[in-house]
Amino acid sequence: MILRLIVCLSMMFLPLSVSAYDRLPPPVKDKDFYDNGRPDPMKVELGRFLFYDKILSGNKNISCGTCHHSLSNTGDGLSLSVGEGANGLGVTRNTGLGENAVVERVPRNAPPLFNLGAKSFTTMFHDGRVTVDPEQPSGFISPAGDDLPLTLDNVLAAQAMFPVTSGTEMAGQRGENSVADAAADGNLAGPGGVWEQLAERLMDIEEYADMFVEVFALGSKSEITFAHVANAIAAFEAVTWRADNSAFDKFLRGDFKALSLRQLIGMKLFYGKARCSHCHSGTFQSDGKFHSIAMPQIGPGKGDGVNFHEDFGRERVTQDIEDRYRFRTPPLRNVALTGPWGHDGAYNTLRGVLEHHINPVKSLMMYNCRQEPVLPSRKDLDAIDCLTHENLNVLEQIASSNELRPNQLGQRHIDYLLEFLNALTDSGSLDLRADVPKRVPSGLPIVE
């Protein structure tokens, strides 16, 4: 107890110029979030229904909540999601059956959704393909270009426009339904496009139509657009999965008893010798930038490279070869809850991904692609999961792009860092069962 008091006092009185604690972020406040963290409750409830309603998928068999479920800590517990065509939830999800089975795994890990209603998050997706840009008509750079609506509330709403346009994620394959056909043709915003078709589906459901008219003060249901859908979903995500009441947050607000001695030591390492805060900086411990850290590549990839199973990451957006294998720095609140970790979920333990950061190239070379990932097995999918990782030439290229130099930390240091990372868990995020509605207005099953 005395030692802990000494540590706390030293943190308070050491000159900031010589202390690792000058890198600590300020406490999180309501003003850090859109709508001061209090969006319209009716808008939130509408978004809650939409998030879990399969009506937004081409074949009406998958929702946003399938891959970002409350029971899986806003992810799905898999290294790579299995989207449209699969059955089940979380780690029990399979790859589907027969001609309706999934075509491929989703190439990247389903990212957690905690705190994305904060204004400091200006970039979405692992490669940053949706980002704030006031010079654009819509206010955002996105794959839709000038077709992106001008009425989106924020970048989180802009992000919500796109999963429904992916054949692998929600739209389905050409020939299966008209939404999938529009997506395959690249018709997102035009007449008969993906967004128009989905909005028309909602107009035909009386409960949804009434809610949209009331929440957005529309003259009639004919004015419903998919931008309204995205704005409602963003409001739901922002308020429901705000997580800023961890032990670390309490410490930042002045409760110096909130962290144990081991967590304090881990925090000092995080913001000091371990160099974690060089990238995991700022309010939610992300610099929002893109880095290559020699993360193993698994799964189908994004069609890049000589074998078409690589994922070039940020380069796919910027077309700059210097950005190859770079991915956005993830925020760390609730990080202990959100495995598997990495842009493709390569690591199934928090210790494993932390040890990777300590010596990325060594970890890359020792990675067991056949054992580590959490993936539902199917022979044809399994056959390509490790093609990239087991290509020595590609492995050397990934290694050479690495930006992190090895850090001389032992297992005891890693233990302390893990203690601190666990102190980033908001206790309010430990039980999210109440976030899931018992029904949705379309009448479709929430889980099947």
Walk me through this protein's architecture.
The protein has 448 residues and is mainly alpha-helical. It starts with a helix and ends in a 26-residue tail after the last helix. Helices cover 32% and strands 2% of the residues. Helix 11 (261-270) crosses helix 17 and helix 13 (350-358) crosses helix 14.
Radius of gyration: 22 Å
Helix count, per DSSP? 17
Instruction: Give the averaged pLDDT, no decimals.
Output: 95
The helix-and-strand class reads: mainly alpha
Strand content of the residues, in percent? under 5%
As a percent range, the share of helical residues equals 25-40%
Number of strands: 5
Give the CA-CA distance, first to last residue. Answer: 52 Å
Helix and strand succession? HHHEEEHHHHHHHHEHEHHHHH
Task: Catalogue the unreliable spans.
Answer: 1-7, 9-18
State the shape: globular
Largest sheet: 3 strands, antiparallel
Name the strands of the widest sheet in spatial order: 1-2-3
